[in-house]
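Our collaborator T.R. sent over the components below with a one-line note: 'Predict the complex.' Nothing else. No constraints on interfaces, no templates requested, no preferences about which chain binds where. So this is a plain run: every listed entity goes in together, and whatever single assembly comes back becomes the starting point for the next discussion.
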Amino acid sequence: MSKVFVPPIKCQGIKTKLVPWILEHAGLREEGRWIEPFMGSGVVGFNVCPQNALFADKNPHLINFYRAIQSGEITRAKAKAFLDAEGEKLSKDGQARFNAVRERFNRTGSPWDFLFLNRSCFNGIIRFNSRGGFNTPYGHKPERFAQAYVTKITNQIDYVAKATKTNHWKFVCADFREVIGQATRADLIYCDPPYLGRHVDYFNSWSEEDERDLAGLLTSTKARFILSTWHSNEYRHNPSLGKWWDGFATLTREHFYHVGAKEKNRNPMLEALVMNFEPAQTEVRSAESELAEQLVLMEKPVKYSVTKKTKPRLATR
Ligand SMILES: C[S@@+](CC[C@H](N)C(=O)[O-])C[C@H]1O[C@@H](n2cnc3c(N)ncnc32)[C@H](O)[C@@H]1O
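Returned assembly:
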């Protein structure tokens, strides 16, 4: 693939860097639907760009935002006007303006304010307190909404707007248990749930019980599925892989997370894709293909990648 589309909303755990790898295995049948029960930013499905899709998430603000684009409430032109106006106030009043918009968002749930906060808060983190209030702090960039940045965001909005017009996409606020049950044999389910034991907030928590339910649903689905999860880091292995996903085809790949800009803060992590069908190809990735991908993403990416292939537990069909 030549270029990864980056969506207008950011979130923690966003899979932008892993999109080319996931897409190698995400071929859809003509009559099949793309079902994404943990859509987050939507970066994976938006790059698949299927004709038929069900995008879902438990966080209503993500869903409201994408529905507002789909309905034409949020357009490129209106977003430019909104971000220009709010950007000017931010540049004048900084923290005070950010706090005022955050307080307004927590009263009204406006998708416009969600966009503003997501793009001006600390690191694009979506975090809600125990009362469901957005509580990520200010990113301390008063000049955040400079023209180039506004243009970038409005182009991203326009891409989604066009895709929702030419395709049949549905955005639903629901728990994954409701969504996976709707899949049929022709569909492909892509799951990227929160990682167990990471952080917990109002819309984004994950327990052993959730993992067990997800494994139960995916093990018995007639659809094909791909699950993103972590395999191991320098300290430990993901215990869920052996407990719930043993016997499914598992691909792994090294990925670095950056905490700050310093080289010493690069944290290696082996990411995994678990699937109930034969992977599209055996991943023997050359240094050139890694380099090509680095150039596409223009970020510091993987050092090397590994494939571990086990005999897949195939979907019953
Ligand atoms: C790791 S993020 C997904 C990131 C996404 N793949 C991306 O690249 O942007 C996990 C998402 O799952 C959602 N979520 C958490 N618990 C859920 C549940 N029980 N049912 C549905 N969605 C849930 C969160 O709101 C969050 O958006």
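Summary for T.R.: Strands lie at 34-36, 52-57, 168-173, 188-191, 224-233, 249-258, 266-275.
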